[in-house]
Design a protein that fits this description.
- The chain is mainly α and 208 residues long.
- Helices cover 80% and strands 0% of the residues.
Length: 208
């Protein structure tokens, strides 16, 4: 059974076990799915309300986008665990001869790159969604404005958690150019995420 198909209780129980998956990357993806669901709720609570007729079409568009994001993030829960297993399988390769050691080392490097790129994609997707959440929160139903803020905070966690998984994998890579490119991207995404979250939390604070 896929991780995304587990009940909430089952997922939490498996996370708390001595099994390495689901780990921080899968949980980051789950946070992205939760954020998209909560933001979609805000959009849905805006649609059909007479005080928000002027943004109804916009909210319908946002709702559809959040639903698509949720599907992506749910798939990412399993993609991240699959990437981790790829690395573990590479480490289990034989290393008796010099040739085996060389093959094993190459496979570890290849798998670790995949394990870096998957959470990077999660982080980039969640960063992309932050702007959509912000606009939905600003223009959506004011009675659910705090739900928009929680969605933003949860999405922030998805981004920063995924970036941590990128960074820890970069430490085991020998490709200096690849490492620098992703490390620089991590720093940029982190700065943008923190700034975007502060902007919306500050805004919501003025509305309460």
């Amino acid at each position: 059974m896929k991780l995304q198909d587990l009940s909430i209780k089952q997922f939490l129980e498996q996370t708390s076990s001595n099994e390495p998956v689901p780990g921080g990357g899968s949980v980051s993806a789950l946070n992205g799915a939760i954020a998209s669901s909560l933001a979609q709720m805000l959009a849905s609570l805006t649609i059909g309300r007479k005080n928000y007729v002027e943004v109804e079409d916009l909210m319908k568009e946002h709702s559809a986008k959040f639903e698509a994001y949720r599907t992506h993030f749910l798939n990412d829960i399993d993609r991240d665990s699959d990437a981790y297993n790829l690395v573990m399988n590479a480490y289990k390769l034989p290393k008796e001869t010099d040739e085996e050691k060389a093959v094993r080392s190459e496979k570890i490097q290849e798998a670790t790159k995949v394990a870096s790129l998957v959470p990077m994609e999660i982080a980039e997707r969640a960063l992309e969604m932050l702007d959509l959440i912000a606009e939905t929160t600003r223009k959506g139903n004011k009675n659910a404005i705090t739900d928009g803020c929680v969605a933003m905070m949860t999405c922030r966690t998805a981004v920063l958690g995924a970036l941590l998984n990128v960074r820890i994998n970069l430490g085991g890579l020998k490709d200096a150019d690849f490492v620098k490119e992703l490390a620089d991207k991590c720093d940029r995404i982190e700065r943008e995420t923190i700034a975007k979250e502060k902007e919306i939390t500050d805004y919501v604070a003025t509305q309460l």
